[in-house]
Design a protein that fits this description.
33% of the residues lie in helices and 27% in strands. Strands 4-3-5-6-7-8-9-10 form an 8-stranded mixed β-sheet, with helices on both faces. α4 packs across α7 and α5 packs parallel to α6. By secondary structure, the chain is α+β, with helices and mostly antiparallel strands.
């Protein structure tokens, strides 16, 4: 049985409150007022309301912490305290098209001891409002789905493995790079999936539902929580060159200990 810390309880309370509103809005998705902030990059009133709910709840609980918000940008806090990295609605396009696959992603990142920037993610939560699944992790305390311990998959063979990805679209991402990786990887694996929410992709790697994941051109709020989930479930996350960072976003490659190294070799070879 997992002993849930006060920090995770704060995060989950905020995510569940925002998730209630998202579920309600999802049921009325055809009536949402939607604007466009870029090609195929929609922002809805639901997205904005969810972010405000998360901000208000987390600010009340930790008033001296800063924020990195998808919609609201960076809000500075006490530089000696952690900061929140938040995506209030990962999978916005799914949401707006009535596809029930989207999530709230919340991560807490601590500052480096020498004051030179930001260090490790110390807590993470990915909450799927439709299924009411709460994936969470804390540094050195493992990854969990509610009170069940998560482990990355034990598969060792690519031809048995299911790999997730994000496909470039409407001017976002590097289509040529993705095509090279796909061409090298697809013939060797059991399947490739694109579901449209990177935070859930990484949570599902942590849960062993997927065996690996790759994508590029993401932002910290897409991956900060997911990176910790995978690592605390026994997996590895790096960029395409194999370098591990607290938050991998520009390039993300995730998998278990055996498959990650194999995926890295394939990706690196495809991009030579």
């Amino acid at each position: 049985m997992a002993v849930i810390s006060g920090l995770i309880r704060v995060m989950e309370k905020a995510a569940r409150k925002a998730g209630q509103r998202l579920r309600r809005d999802f049921g009325e998705v055809e009536h949402l007022q939607v604007s466009r902030k870029g090609p195929a990059d929609f922002v809805s009133k639901a997205d904005q309301r969810a972010e405000r709910t998360l901000y208000d709840e987390l600010l009340a609980a930790r008033p001296d912490w800063g924020f990195v918000l998808e919609e609201g940008g960076i809000i500075e806090g006490d530089p000696t305290k952690p900061r929140w990295i938040i995506d209030p609605l990962d999978g916005t396009s799914n949401f707006l098209h009535g596809i029930p696959h989207f999530a709230i992603s919340v991560a807490a990142q601590e500052p480096k001891l020498d004051g030179s920037g930001w260090g490790d993610v110390i807590a993470a939560l990915v909450y799927q409002p439709v299924t009411d699944e709460s994936f969470w992790a804390e540094k050195t305390r493992g990854a969990w789905l509610h009170d069940r311990r998560l482990r990355v998959s034990a598969r060792r063979h690519l031809d048995e493995s299911l790999i997730a990805t994000g496909i470039p679209f409407a001017g976002r991402g590097d289509a040529a790079e993705w095509s090279k990786i796909y061409a090298a990887l697809a013939p060797q694996v059991a399947g490739i999936r694109r579901f449209g929410a990177a935070s859930l992709d990484l949570a599902w790697v942590a849960a062993g539902r997927y065996d690996g994941f790759w994508e590029s051109g993401l932002a910290p709020w897409d991956t900060a929580a997911g990176c910790l989930l995978v690592r605390e479930a026994g997996g590895f996350v790096s960029d395409f060159k194999g370098r591990s960072q607290p938050v991998c976003d520009a390039e993300v490659l995730a998998g278990n200990d055996s498959l990650h190294s194999r995926l890295h070799k394939i990706v690196a070879g495809a991009l030579k």
